[in-house]
């Protein structure tokens, strides 16, 4: 039982971060805190993908040693094929719901590579995702600055109160002479 | 006429149309943002770019139609072959969406200039158009791409630009800002859920290319990772599509953003997300998975029906015209989802047909409202009283689009409701057909209130200037209103496109 | 002229008239002239169309396909020809009347009034000529929408409220029930065409339960036929000026409703299927209930137009009852009632309008003794009442006879009793009006002087007299009408 938890430590971390992020986002009233929650949530997703790229016994996906020698251009195909094969191994991985054992040595050898490498593709995807997250955060913070200028506060419940007052005033303006329902 | 355009198009345009349709606005966006002047040059650039994209989408349509049964155009970006490289895959389904988005963008960019002059500060206008082009590009990219992660990238590109565009409505009403931040938070959650789902799919299959995923997913009906991935994707895209109950961001966003943005978003943003949903449901995941494995009908149908009923009711109680239309949009998304959840070619065709018609209807309605905002600075039903006499051209177009929304015969809305109810009855879902009809009656109530105020009440403030919206605004408005009538009378062209789209999805799997 | 040309003419002429009225808006006499010219031309076209029925070349036209499966198709058949003739003919009369009424009452927005009238007539012609349910539905809705501005004409709060109820009820029933029935029919039968003998007759998928559900959807979805409880839009629409009420009750709107009911019964269900449909008895019962209860309510109304409105509700249910009897005699009775009631009711309404223009009076209790001053008007009213009651030599008698024959044939004997009770009630609520006006009992006060010094405008008196005369003429023409309708409806020659 303890092994079950420990072997999947990374997934527990991911779930934990995701839930913390979402909870902060939903329950907090301070807009900056909500944006922080959003960032934590996005970080957990990044961790998720990176977990996927980990191959047991694999090292950083940079060709070295015996694999680095040889024809530069053709290598790209082999590397791509190896990466895809690494992903297929990861397929076997995920089917068992998260074990780190894989038949990678076989895969690497069949493509003519001596060493086992982790899958670089999820890392690349997450670079994109990090950029997206940063852009979103930047826009969000800019909007929060403008909210502060316009409303004088960044607490969402206070903002809602102010908007409600405006809405009630509009309604009273449209229907003059009606008794106050409150 | 389509063949004529194909003949006139230069060879490089034909060969690279899928890429050009993205690259043009992608380049033009940052350039527009830094153009000097009061924004007029940026506006012209926007019009030119959207016009070119419309032409490119027509070229793609011609290419797709050149083969009986619909060709699939596969364009490998950078020459890297799929499934390792990112590919753009155009078939009958997304060429329809591409055409719709570019055409609407073109019309709204023509109509937008007077409203932007009135609502956005001069120094921000060029950047506004830059953001608009990025948003436009993102939507086109979502429609064109054949790679699941690439879809996320384009989706977020368009969304971030949209958050900015919505927030720019603060020039008129500061409530645009909380609306924008709410939209940002919820929209990012949606996109993040989507990317988690894609992650699960990648973990299970090792590929991100949608066509390849479809092949790999065929034998995985019991796989928990795939089911979870499907669930995340459904929720994520559903949030972007304003599927009930994930629609809370929409009413505020549509009500307080600049008129130009509302008109464009109402007609395109949710539609593209629904397209993505359809693409995943029917192309990527197999039909057996959807209906036996994950019981699609149990999820989408009640959501669609709840959207139709709850939001139609909410629309009745609004005092602001734009809010009424916003709730109405959510209800109409419910119609589309109901059609899609049928799982038959007829249902998907009806859903896609309604997608196009609704874009035309809502586009026209919001454009008319923009005209009123421009000349009278009021958006409440109260402010609309008596405008039938002061602004007859605007209000007649509004009335045509409103009748289309209600579903009066000879309008596009009637055609799509007819198609939807026929599809429902053909599958035996008579209770759903009755609910569709009931919510149409609700539409009569909420649109009827507005129409009654416009045409039969005396103006509230006779001192207000009695004048008509400018020609730049009326032109595109009437194009959309007449499109409603044309499809209502002779809908063969669009129905043909929708049917082709549905057939493209169902080749190889029939229910 | 070929049949196709006539069909196109029937649709285009009212639209051209509307356009002409629009441009002639500033010249009232010219504008009214265009209306009359258009109405006359339409009537001639309708005669031409009626002439093509039963010949070698029935007028047929397929205008095009809206969407695969939905065509705009027209075909003339006897029922439709009769409706077209009644509608276009009475348009001429009503136009003369409108001229007198609108000018006499100094109503505003007359241009809009005449334009909407023309469009409404186009809708009526479209309904008359439709060859399938889709085309009929399209023009049915055109009729609803084009009459809305007419009902709301006065634009005060009461008028808007009445017009809203009118529009909401008709749209809700047509979209909510009628359209569903149409689409369901299409799903079951694969087409929406009107087929002699019944489109759904013989279709396997149509079980008795499905047929019952469809029948109920149709019966209550055709809101213009004013079957209880969908009838309340009609009294609410009384806020409209009298020419509009005349249009609603006699020329176009309710007639389109019961005509649609007849077409559905004859060409979508057919006698055989109707007989086997369990809900037929229910709908027949509802129709008879409507006949009696509407007449009872009419008795309680002192407002003249309200009483006439409820009278119409009851009289319309005759047609529905006739259709539900599911045999040729019943259907014939119902069809003849369409024509007979049109003439009778329009007379009554036009008289009510003339009274209002001259004296400003709307309540029946105020009309005692007025007949001495307005003998022509009340004379026409008397004749119209007798026609509704069903006394020969006036038109209303024949339909009642056919309906009784039909009820005997179908075994629903109680219908005959309902008809007799209804006639008695008609006498009770219609005759006193004219009698007390023409021959007031001793001791009645002298009626107040005219509101309008010259009395009722000439056109508003001449028109009802003309139609009252028409009820007599129609009585003698009933035989021809019977023969004309026979090929479609079947029965004894």
TrEMBL record, chain A:
Subcellular compartments: Cell membrane
Domain of life: Bacteria
Keywords: Cell membrane, Membrane, Transmembrane, Transmembrane helix
One Pfam family per UniProt: Oxidored_q2
Listed transmembrane segments: 12-28, 124-145
Record's keyword annotation contains Cell membrane: yes
Membrane topology: Multi-pass membrane protein
PANTHER family in alphabetical order: ANTIPORTER SUBUNIT MNHC2-RELATED
Similarity-based family: Belongs to the CPA3 antiporters (TC 2.A.63) subunit C family.
Protein name in UniProt: NADH-quinone oxidoreductase
Organism of origin: Henriciella pelagia
TrEMBL record, chain B:
Matches recorded under InterPro entries: CPA3_Na-H_Antiporter_D, ND/Mrp_TM
Superkingdom of the organism of origin: Bacteria
Membrane-spanning segments: 12-35, 41-62, 92-114, 126-145, 151-171, 183-205, 225-246, 258-282, 294-317, 329-353, 359-378, 390-408, 428-448, 469-489
UniProt entry keywords in alphabetical sequence: Cell membrane, Membrane, Transmembrane, Transmembrane helix
Main location: membrane
Membrane topology listed for this record: Multi-pass membrane protein
Subcellular location: Cell membrane; Membrane
NADH:quinone oxidoreductase/Mrp antiporter transmembrane domain boundaries: 147-442
UniProt entry tagged with the keyword Transmembrane: yes
Pfam families given in the database record: Proton_antipo_M
Entry's family note: Belongs to the CPA3 antiporters (TC 2.A.63) subunit D family.
Name of the protein described by the UniProt record: Cation:proton antiporter
Native source species: Henriciella pelagia
UniProtKB/TrEMBL annotation, chain C:
Subcellular location: Cell membrane; Membrane
Domain of life: Bacteria
Residue stretches making up the NADH:quinone oxidoreductase/Mrp antiporter transmembrane domain: 130-424
Signal peptide: none
Transmembrane feature ranges: 6-24, 36-59, 79-101, 113-131, 137-153, 165-189, 209-234, 246-270, 282-299, 308-326, 338-357, 377-395, 415-438, 459-478
Keywords on record: Cell membrane, Membrane, Transmembrane, Transmembrane helix
Keyword Transmembrane helix: yes
Membrane topology term: Multi-pass membrane protein
Family matches, as Pfam families: Proton_antipo_M (PF00361)
Membership in a protein family: Belongs to the CPA3 antiporters (TC 2.A.63) subunit D family.
Stated name of the protein: Cation:proton antiporter
């Amino acid at each position: 039982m303890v092994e079950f938890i420990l072997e999947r430590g990374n997934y527990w971390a991911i779930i934990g971060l995701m839930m913390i992020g979402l909870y902060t986002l939903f329950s907090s009233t301070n807009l900056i805190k909500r944006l922080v929650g959003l960032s934590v949530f996005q970080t957990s997703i990044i961790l998720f993908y990176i977990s996927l790229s980990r191959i047991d016994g694999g090292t950083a996906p940079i060709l070295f040693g015996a694999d680095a020698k040889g024809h530069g251009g053709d290598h790209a195909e082999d590397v791509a094929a190896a990466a895809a094969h690494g992903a297929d191994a990861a397929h076997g991985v995920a089917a068992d719901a998260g074990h780190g054992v894989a038949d990678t040595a076989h895969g690497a050898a069949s493509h003519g590579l001596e060493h086992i490498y982790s899958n670089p593709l999820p890392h690349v995807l997450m670079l994109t995702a990090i950029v997206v997250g940063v852009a979103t955060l930047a826009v969000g913070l800019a909007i929060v600055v403008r909210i502060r200028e316009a409303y004088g506060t960044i607490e969402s419940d206070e903002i809602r109160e102010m908007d409600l007052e405006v809405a009630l005033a509009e309604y009273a303006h449209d229907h003059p002479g009606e008794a106050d329902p409150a | 006429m389509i063949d004529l355009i194909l003949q006139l198009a230069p060879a490089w345009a034909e060969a690279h149309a899928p890429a050009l349709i993205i690259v043009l606005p992608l380049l033009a966006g940052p350039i527009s943002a830094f153009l000097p002047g009061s924004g007029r040059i940026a506006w012209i650039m926007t019009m030119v770019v959207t016009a070119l994209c419309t032409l490119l989408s027509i070229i793609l349509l011609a290419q797709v139609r050149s083969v009986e049964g619909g060709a699939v155009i596969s364009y490998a970006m950078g020459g890297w072959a799929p499934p390792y490289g990112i590919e753009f895959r155009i078939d009958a389904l997304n060429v329809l969406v591409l055409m719709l988005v570019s055409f609407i963008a073109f019309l709204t960019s023509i109509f937008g200039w007077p409203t932007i002059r009135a609502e956005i500060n001069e120094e921000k206008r060029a950047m506004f158009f830059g953001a608009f082009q990025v948003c436009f590009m993102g939507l086109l990219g979502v429609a064109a791409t054949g790679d699941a992660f690439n879809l996320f990238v384009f989706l977020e590109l368009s969304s971030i630009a949209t958050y900015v565009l919505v927030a720019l409505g603060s020039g008129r009403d500061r409530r645009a800002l909380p609306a924008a931040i709410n939209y940002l938070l919820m929209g990012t959650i949606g996109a993040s859920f989507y990317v988690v789902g894609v992650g699960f799919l990648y973990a299970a299959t090792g590929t991100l290319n949608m066509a390849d995923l479809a092949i790999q997913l065929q034998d995985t009906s019991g796989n928990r990772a795939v089911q979870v991935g499907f669930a995340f994707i459904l929720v994520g895209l559903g949030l972007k599509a304003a599927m009930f109950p994930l629609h809370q961001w929409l009413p505020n966003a549509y009500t307080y953003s600049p008129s130009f943005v509302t008109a464009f978003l109402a007609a395109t943003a949710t539609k593209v997300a629904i397209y993505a949903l359809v693409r995943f449901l029917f192309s990527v995941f197999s039909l057996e998975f959807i209906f036996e494995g994950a019981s699609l009908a149990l999820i989408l149908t009640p959501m669609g029906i709840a959207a139709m009923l709850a939001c139609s009711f909410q629309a009745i109680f609004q005092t602001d015209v734009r809010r009424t239309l916003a709730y109405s949009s959510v209800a109409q998304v419910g119609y589309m989802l109901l059609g899609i959840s049928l799982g038959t070619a007829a249902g998907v065709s009806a859903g896609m047909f309604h997608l196009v018609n609704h874009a035309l209807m809502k586009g026209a309605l919001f454009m008319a409202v923009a005209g009123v905002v421009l000349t009278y600075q009021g958006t409440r039903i109260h402010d609309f009283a008596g405008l039938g006499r002061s602004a007859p051209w605007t209000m007649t177009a509004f009335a045509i689009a409103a009748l289309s929304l209600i579903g009066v015969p000879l309008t596009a809305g009637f055609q799509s409701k007819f198609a939807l109810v026929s599809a429902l009855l053909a599958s035996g879902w008579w209770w759903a057909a009755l609910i569709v009809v009931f919510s149409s009656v609700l539409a009569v109530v909420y649109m009827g209130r507005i129409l009654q105020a416009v045409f039969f009440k005396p103006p509230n403030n006779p001192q207000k200037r009695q004048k008509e919206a400018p020609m730049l605004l009326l032109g595109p408005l009437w194009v959309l209103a007449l499109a409603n009538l044309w499809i209502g009378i002779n809908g063969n062209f669009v129905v043909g496109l929708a049917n082709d789209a549905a057939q493209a999805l169902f080749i190889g799997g029939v229910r | 002229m070929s049949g196709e040309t006539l069909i196109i003419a029937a649709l285009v002429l009212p639209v051209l008239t509307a356009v002409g009225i629009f441009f002639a808006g500033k010249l009232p006499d010219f504008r009214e002239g265009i209306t009359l010219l258009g109405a006359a031309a339409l009537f001639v076209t309708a005669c031409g169309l009626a002439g093509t029925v039963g010949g070698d070349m029935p007028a047929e036209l397929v205008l095009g396909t809206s969407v695969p499966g939905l065509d705009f198709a027209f075909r003339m058949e006897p029922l439709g020809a009769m409706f077209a003739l009644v509608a276009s003919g009475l348009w001429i009369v009503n136009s003369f009347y409108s001229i007198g009424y609108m000018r006499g009452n100094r109503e505003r927005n007359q241009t809009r009034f005449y334009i909407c009238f023309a469009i409404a007539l186009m809708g009526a012609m479209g309904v008359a000529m439709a060859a399938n349910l889709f085309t009929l539905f399209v023009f049915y809705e055109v009729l609803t929408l084009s009459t809305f501005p007419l009902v709301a004409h006065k634009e005060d709060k009461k008028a808007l409220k009445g017009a809203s109820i009118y529009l909401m009820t008709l749209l809700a029933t047509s979209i909510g029930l009628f359209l569903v029935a149409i689409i369901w029919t299409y799903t079951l039968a694969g087409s929406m065409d009107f087929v002699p003998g019944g489109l759904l007759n013989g279709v396997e998928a149509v079980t008795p339960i499905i047929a019952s559900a469809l029948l109920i959807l149709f019966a209550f979805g055709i809101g213009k036929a004013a079957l209880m409880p969908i009838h309340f839009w009609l009294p609410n629409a009384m806020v409209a000026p009298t020419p509009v009420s005349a249009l609603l009750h006699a020329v176009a709107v309710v007639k389109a409703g019961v005509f649609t009911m007849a077409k559905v019964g004859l060409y979508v269900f057919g006698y055989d299927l109707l007989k086997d449909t369990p809900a037929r008895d229910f709908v027949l019962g509802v129709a008879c209930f409507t006949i009696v209860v509407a007449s009872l309510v009419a008795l309680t109304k002192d407002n003249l137009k309200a009483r006439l409105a409820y009278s119409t509700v009851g009289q319309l249910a005759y047609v529905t009852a006739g259709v539900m009897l599911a045999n040729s005699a019943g259907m014939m009775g119902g069809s003849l009632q369409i024509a007979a009631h049109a003439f009778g009711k329009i007379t009554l309404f036009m008289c009510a309008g003339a009274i209002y223009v001259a004296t400003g009076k709307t309540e029946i209790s105020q009309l005692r003794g007025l007949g001495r001053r307005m003998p022509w008007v009340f004379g026409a009213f008397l004749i119209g009442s007798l026609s509704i009651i069903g006394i020969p030599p006036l038109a209303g008698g024949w339909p009642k006879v056919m309906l009784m024959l039909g009820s005997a044939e179908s075994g629903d004997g109680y219908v005959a009793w309902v008809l007799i009770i209804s006639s008695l009630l008609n006498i009770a609520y219609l005759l006193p009006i004219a009698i007390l006006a023409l021959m007031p009992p001793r001791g009645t006060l002298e009626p107040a002087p005219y509101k309008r010094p010259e009395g009722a405008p000439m056109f508003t008196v001449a028109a009802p007299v003309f139609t009252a005369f028409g009820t007599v003429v129609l009585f003698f023409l009933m035989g021809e009408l019977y023969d004309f309708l026979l090929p479609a409806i079947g029965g004894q020659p």
